[in-house]
Amino acid sequence: MKIPLYFLGRLQFFLFGFHWVRTKGTQASVDEAPILVVAPHTSFFDPIIGFMTGLPGSLNRIENSKWPIFGTLVNFLQPVYVSRKDPNSRLNTIKEIKRRCQPNSGWPQIVIFPEGTCTNRSCLISFKGGAFYPGVPVQPIAMRYLNKPDTFTWTWDGPGAFSLLWLTMCNFDNKLELEFLPVYKPSQAEIDDPKLFANNVRAVIANALNLPVTDHTYEDCRLMEQARAKGLPLVAGIVEFQKILNKLGLKLETLQEQLDRFAEIAQSEGYVTIDDLAKYLNVSVSPALEEMFALYDRDGTNKIDFREYVIGCSLVAETANGEETLELAFRMFGGDKGYITSEDLTRILGSSFEMKKEECETLFKLVDKDESGQITFDGFREYAKKKPEYAQLFMTYQKQAAPQQTNGGHSIGNGNGMSKKSE
């Protein structure tokens, strides 16, 4: 069955203009390297590698099985299908790859594009771990499309699939080169750490292609797509997810929630200005707000991008948003009696942040959801947790106010919600 399948698939790509594929190096056997690792992943034309490597198995998105003709060819090759919507898919995929890589398993080699998504070939993004969890030797393969202009690259923000297919078929001849690099045998350290294994193999391919590497991942693409859906520029979603995960331990779901909040605030072409932040928090621009804004604005450009916002939320706002801080803030606004009134809020915000009465009343109504005329601690905490920037703003104000209190300035509360002069 493989012979007619090979000729059918190769004929398909021949009609697409791939008349001859140049190869360098020698493909290893399944015993030498059960897994073929290919990069960069650029186009929907990349599956041609399957017909150039003896129809190995592959790691494929479940969506690819639904493509006309191509999907049927893929199904015949018994791929390991991946569903990005199934939370158990990742674990099941790793188990299946390990099973197929066992000695004398009878399975053919598996070809994997470890980047997990198409890129524009200007660099290699982070490799996912699927090809490296089994801890077996892999053969890196460098893939090069040589035509100018480039009619192959299919990315999130570019020509659609049918446009690229038409333009590619208009070429007289489409030149593609595959370079089979030496088999990479993992050390014990790499077997124990699949991430190290993946990074080192990526470096080998990057060196062969003379390309840089970056810590961007497929998760960045998902955030870019979400940013576009929220009306933000695509680049707003780029945070170098792998670095954020390694340094802050933030998962994709947390970043997606923060992107929703960022989209609420950002009114300035994908960035947050101090006026945007003031409007979002329903406060006036004050020295305390300016100081807090500077904690987020790490590069001093007077605007906050999404990456700065994520880091700021993790290192600044979330750490300040503890129970003790919220209780202190509640008491500051007159909550010692068990609730805060509109008058309490207006008096403190007016003196502390120079807010107008109308602004204070608007903020009070947002927090007082049941319209009882009183804000309880539970309601205060719920609103503060939804907008953690408030806790940091309060702490910043406290720090600024401390010298004034020490030197005979105004205190911010006396237990009854009333301001008074220091004795």
Q: What are its keywords?
A:
single chain; elongated; 8% strand; alpha/beta
Explain the overall architecture.
The chain has 423 residues and is an alpha/beta fold. The chain has 18 helices and seven strands. The chain has helices at residues 2-15, 48-52, 70-76, 89-100, 161-170, 188-192, 194-209, 218-229, 241-248, 252-265, 274-281, 287-296, 306-320, 323-332, 342-353, 357-367, 377-386, 389-406; strands at residues 21-24, 35-39, 57-61, 80-82, 110-112, 138-145, 176-180. Strands 1-7-6-2-5-3-4 form a seven-stranded mixed β-sheet. The radius of gyration is 29 Å and the shape is elongated. The N and C termini lie far apart (95 Å). The model is unreliable at 408-423 (pLDDT under 50).
